[in-house]
Amino acid sequence: MCNSKAFGQSYAIVDTMTLLISYVFVS
Predict the structure, then answer these.
(1) What's the chain's Rg over C-alpha atoms?
(2) Where do transmembrane segments lie in this chain (predicted)?
(3) Rounded mean pLDDT of the chain?
């Protein structure tokens, strides 16, 4: 449970990167 916060942060970074990549593909 201690690592849930760090995992959430890294997942948020991955989610942001995926959003940027998808945005580039859509454009």
Answers:
(1) 12
(2) 6-26
(3) 81
Nearest 10 degrees: Cα torsion 4, 7, 13, 18: -110
Report pLDDT digits (tens) over 9-18: 778 888 999 9
Distance CA 23, CA 8 (A): 22
Round to whole Å and give the CA distance between 15 and 10: 9
Q: How far is CA 26 from CA 3, 12, 15, 19, 20, in A?
A: 34, 21, 16, 10, 10
Query: For tokens 């690592």, what's the residue?
Result: 3
